[in-house]
Amino acid sequence: MSDLQTPATRPANPRFSSGPCAKIPAYSLDMLADAPLGRSHRAAVGKAKLKRAIDQTREILGVPADYRIGIVPGSDTGAVEMAMWSLLGARPVEMLAWESFGEGWVTDVVKQLKLDATVTKAPYGEVVDLATVDFDKDVVFTWNGTTSGVRVPNGDAIPADRAGLTICDATSAAFAMELPWDKLDVVTFSWQKVLGGEGAHGMLILSPRAVERLESYVPAWPLPKIFRLTAKGKLIEGIFQGETINTPSMLAVEDYLVALDWAQSIGGLKGLVARAEANARVVAEFVAQNDWIANLAVRPEIASTTSVCLKFTDPRITDGAAFAKGVAKRLESQGVALDVGAYRDAPPGLRIWCGSTVETADVAALMPWIDWAFQAEIAALQAA
């Protein structure tokens, strides 16, 4: 092991966490100087900032003009819960899960809302075949499995004339992948993922069909104030114009606006998608060159371009969890990759964030270090 040479190049930014994710390139706290701190979010300056965050989100993501976009509490989790508690129960429900967060939504619907939902699951590395799903039911699913490294390849299997609503958790997909808005009725995400914003705030996007459901259906269960989207049978339109349900952090709002400005400066969604795809391509090429590591996704077309999950396949490894933890620890101790261990509920391995704020040169610099850490861990295993 002492003969192993450490790579000559190091990532300039070792932050490859899958959330909170890396800040935008050349980020500085000085960029937040215009934040209206110590002011009410209901003052004109606060309302303007919140409205701008909604408008720029719409512009960059290409959200249709008749879809509502709201800033809600509780990050992506809060946005998904708000949608499920407010919308589900009017029709039969089908829950799709292929990773831990999708499993969490299943638990909430079946055990908390106590709905008799159809539950369709796929193992880690796979996604449910959408062609087998009944979209006359309300369907809840994640677009990109943050903890499993797989994604829905496209929305082709979702019918335009569906009777049910599609509720999509897109938190690690929005701003890095094309989303078919005509196939999605509810979309949620959080600021701390692809754009590297600060946490605690979620985004809730509603189609006209979702709004119609909100205004025509009253759930059988009580809704806490923080989940209420209607009043007297009508949508609370202010929520979708920047009048948040509770007090937002104007510092976090400013941080999101800075990230949105950067996104526009690199070509908007097209530029963001290209950066994530280039990053994931570097990892894919590395995997193809080494037979001791593989993508957790079983097929290239469903492999995530943001939360890239890898597994070690060397037959000399007897304890996969301990080995992967050892590799991640070596990378962190060298200061070349922070927070790259697999999610606690996922199969052992590495999880490398390749989202749009990550520089491709840093991903490329990391690959030889993974090789070094693997070889070092194998050597330690053989010497034990």
TrEMBL record:
<dbReference type="GO" id="GO:0006564">
    <property type="term" value="P:L-serine biosynthetic process"/>
</dbReference>
<keyword id="KW-0028">Amino-acid biosynthesis</keyword>
<keyword id="KW-0032">Aminotransferase</keyword>
<dbReference type="GO" id="GO:0004648">
    <property type="term" value="F:O-phospho-L-serine:2-oxoglutarate aminotransferase activity"/>
</dbReference>
<keyword id="KW-0718">Serine biosynthesis</keyword>
<dbReference type="InterPro" id="IPR015422">
    <property type="entry name" value="PyrdxlP-dep_Trfase_small"/>
</dbReference>
<dbReference type="InterPro" id="IPR022278">
    <property type="entry name" value="Pser_aminoTfrase"/>
</dbReference>
<dbReference type="GO" id="GO:0004760">
    <property type="term" value="F:L-serine-pyruvate transaminase activity"/>
</dbReference>
<protein>
    <recommendedName>
        <fullName>phosphoserine transaminase</fullName>
        <ecNumber>2.6.1.52</ecNumber>
    </recommendedName>
</protein>
<comment type="similarity">
    <text>Belongs to the class-V pyridoxal-phosphate-dependent aminotransferase family. SerC subfamily.</text>
</comment>
<dbReference type="InterPro" id="IPR015424">
    <property type="entry name" value="PyrdxlP-dep_Trfase"/>
</dbReference>
<comment type="pathway">
    <text>Amino-acid biosynthesis; L-serine biosynthesis; L-serine from 3-phospho-D-glycerate: step 2/3.</text>
</comment>
<keyword id="KW-0963">Cytoplasm</keyword>
<dbReference type="GO" id="GO:0008453">
    <property type="term" value="F:alanine-glyoxylate transaminase activity"/>
</dbReference>
<dbReference type="InterPro" id="IPR006271">
    <property type="entry name" value="Pser_aminoTfrase_methanosarc"/>
</dbReference>
<dbReference type="GO" id="GO:0019265">
    <property type="term" value="P:glycine biosynthetic process, by transamination of glyoxylate"/>
</dbReference>
<keyword id="KW-0808">Transferase</keyword>
<keyword id="KW-0663">Pyridoxal phosphate</keyword>
<dbReference type="InterPro" id="IPR015421">
    <property type="entry name" value="PyrdxlP-dep_Trfase_major"/>
</dbReference>
